[in-house]
Amino acid sequence: MTQPDTAARGQFNWSGTYRYAFDKILAPASVCELQDLVAGASQVKVVGSRHSFTGIADGTLAVSVADLPPASDVDSDRQTVTVPAGITYGVLARRLHDEGLALANLASLPHISVAGAIATATHGSGRNNGNLSTAVEGIQFVLANGEVFELSAGDAWFDGAVVHLGALGVVCRLTLKAEPEFQVAQRVYEDIPWEVVIENFEELMSAAYSVSVFTGRAQQAAQVWLKQRSDWPESPATLFGARTATRDVHPLPGLDPANCTPQLGVPGLWSDRLPHFRMEFTPSNGQEIQSEFHIPAAYGPEAIRAVRQLRDRLSDVLQVWEIRVIKADSLWLSPQYRRDSVAFHMTWDADVAGVAAAVRLVEQALSPFDPRPHWGKVFTQTQPPVAARYERHADFISLQKKLDPDGKFVNDWVRANVLGEQ
Fold first, then answer.
1. 160: closest CA among 422, 359, 396, 341?
2. What is the CATH architecture of 73-180?
3. Would you list the domain boundaries of the chain?
4. Does the structural domain 183-373 have CATH classification 3.40.50.10440?
5. What share of the chain is helix, strand, coil (3-state, %, to 5)?
6. Amino acid 282: pLDDT
7. Reported pTM
8. What mean pLDDT comes out for the span 1-16?
């Protein structure tokens, strides 16, 4: 039976910086209940782990798929796993461990829901790693009329439906590619000068299976996190002259690293090293706002210089800046659509007005490099709609009109940023 979810933070996003219009979340206990709920509603939006920082999931009727049956189906021959949409990556990793399997990559946080991460093209890092959406082999929606609609890799609309921004239907199940379980060792290198990062950018971002470059509020020097698979060459003792840290560190200077995943080159399961933060701890810093912009990888060094020129103007609200790389893909509304990308992620103080001003500065600095924002994070440029920057924008609108002709899954955010409607 569908139950209202009135848990703490029900009206707010994960960090408490965005207040939703709804006052409760309905949580159907079966796909049949979800079908009836969707068919009888005039407008529906789905909320997952509430880690978005925008109105992408806002609306009058909120639905959670977290209470759908939790069973996961593993196909060992095809090396795929079919999971309920509301499962988190941390929980999924434990289930895959029982089967000796892994996913190719994870985001910084294992606390986020699989369906929400895929809908917004959330990502980890790695020159040869696509975003999390590229792991999808099959996707199952409940459409506006309550019918179940399935797509598999290779189907005509599949590439348009995976990164769907909540605008096509309610995802209830997903099939993901898996691979044999592997281990990862994580090392951190501190105080690398920015000129070294810029001049050796390509080599640096190819130095391990997954690479993150961090800098703090003052942007004085860079901290590099290398996450290396055990079946790859071991990470070096020094990196462009910088030695590895001799104690665990936090990407935000001065914070306790207890909630971060183990470092110091100690091997561990993929799921215990690829995220920056442990599943069993409260993620990141809590009171914050996030933004992120993706540019073609070839522009990385030049774009770093452009943002570095803003350091004095950003320091009042910037907590940490992270740089990662992501492989190109074919998903219509993925920020990596047909281009290897560099992601510039900023974690800001919970100062809405100050962050808006800072984000506008970053957008202006990156404008020569054709930036695409992360769909679940803060950006300011909506005219023309952000989605219009994508080659398949018109095709996505056609797909949206076909699957949701009356706009049941459309809200103000989708109208402004995807459809271009006011």
1. 396
2. 2-Layer Sandwich (3.30)
3. 73-180, 183-373
4. no
5. 25, 25, 50
6. 61
7. 0.94
8. 62
